[in-house]
């Protein structure tokens, strides 16, 4: 498992405002989208492209276009929805698959309540988005679905991660699958309720105004 924590002042600035408990939902959603643009820019460096002949008003030239098979973006509902718009704006030709997952707040076990993924993910570059990589349980469940559909190349984009979650992903995938994580921050730890410290609280609640 490869972990990337891009070092960029705009990411750090926006993440600081996002974390602040005084930031309201409208601003939180906007900042999430902006952070997705910045993270997607880094996370898609390996996106496959092929040459494309075009003609500008001045003459012919060869550019590139995103190659087929189309990349797939998979938001993990609920909180991953907040990152979905930004991702498909960056990769407008992507196909979208959905995974609905919920974490039991007592046991911290993740379970699936909805799944609409393309049936065959062989050769597809898959970008799974979920803001908080806490215990890793949800992301592991999600990535396991993707691998079971034939995906070999999975990139997770998160806003805030805990070392416990990163370790769980390493233990699960090292040596068996090509999994990469891009995260805006790697925080200190999880608390006894499974929240990332300092984190930003419950990402879904903050995105959708539940708090
Ligand atoms: N999910 C969240 O929304 N926040 C956390 O800190 C951990 C899991």
TrEMBL record:
Entry-linked SUPFAM superfamilies: PRTase-like
Q: Which PANTHER family match?
A: ADENINE PHOSPHORIBOSYLTRANSFERASE (PTHR32315), URACIL PHOSPHORIBOSYLTRANSFERASE, CHLOROPLASTIC (PTHR32315:SF4)
Q: What is its EC number?
A: 2.4.2.9
Cofactors named for this entry? Mg(2+)
Q: How is its activity regulated?
A: Allosterically activated by GTP.
Report the pathway entry. Pyrimidine metabolism; UMP biosynthesis via salvage pathway; UMP from uracil: step 1/1
Is Transmembrane set as a keyword in this record?
no
Annotated protein name in UniProt: Uracil phosphoribosyltransferase
Listed binding positions for uracil are 196, 201-203
| UniProt KW keywords | Allosteric enzyme, Glycosyltransferase, GTP-binding, Magnesium, Nucleotide-binding, Transferase
Catalyses which reaction?
UMP + diphosphate = 5-phospho-alpha-D-ribose 1-diphosphate + uracil
Enzyme category, top tier = transferase
Question: Which Gene Ontology molecular-function terms are recorded?
Answer: glycosyltransferase activity
Q: Which CDD domains match?
A: PRTases_typeI
Q: Where does 5-phospho-alpha-D-ribose 1-diphosphate bind?
A: 78, 103, 130-138, 202
Q: Phosphoribosyltransferase domain: from which residue to which, for each copy?
A: 5-209
Report the superkingdom from the record: Bacteria
Q: What does this protein do?
A: Catalyzes the conversion of uracil and 5-phospho-alpha-D-ribose 1-diphosphate (PRPP) to UMP and diphosphate.
Query: What is the cofactor note?
Result: Binds 1 Mg(2+) ion per subunit. The magnesium is bound as Mg-PRPP.
- Report the sequence similarity comment from the record: Belongs to the UPRTase family.
């Amino acid at each position: 498992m490869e972990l990337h924590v891009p070092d960029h002042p705009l990411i750090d600035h926006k993440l600081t405002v996002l974390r602040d408990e005084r930031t309201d939902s409208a601003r939180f959603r906007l900042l999430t989208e902006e952070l997705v643009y910045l993270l997607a820019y880094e996370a898609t460096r390996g996106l496959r492209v092929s040459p494309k002949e075009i003609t500008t008003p001045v003459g012919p030239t060869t550019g590139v276009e995103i190659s087929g098979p189309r990349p797939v973006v998979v938001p993990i509902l609920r909180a991953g929805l907040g990152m979905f718009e930004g991702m498909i704006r960056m990769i407008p030709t992507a196909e979208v698959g959905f995974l609905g997952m919920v974490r039991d707040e007592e046991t911290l076990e993740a379970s699936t309540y909805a799944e609409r993924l393309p049936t065959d993910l062989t050769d597809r570059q898959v970008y799974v988005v979920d803001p908080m990589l806490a215990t890793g349980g949800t992301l592991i469940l999600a990535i396991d679905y993707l691998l079971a559909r034939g995906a070999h190349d999975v990139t997770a984009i998160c806003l805030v991660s805990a070392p416990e979650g990163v370790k769980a992903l390493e233990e699960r995938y090292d040596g068996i699958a090509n999994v990469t994580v891009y995260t805006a921050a790697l925080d200190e730890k999880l608390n006894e309720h499974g929240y990332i410290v300092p984190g930003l609280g419950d990402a879904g609640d903050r995105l959708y105004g539940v708090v």
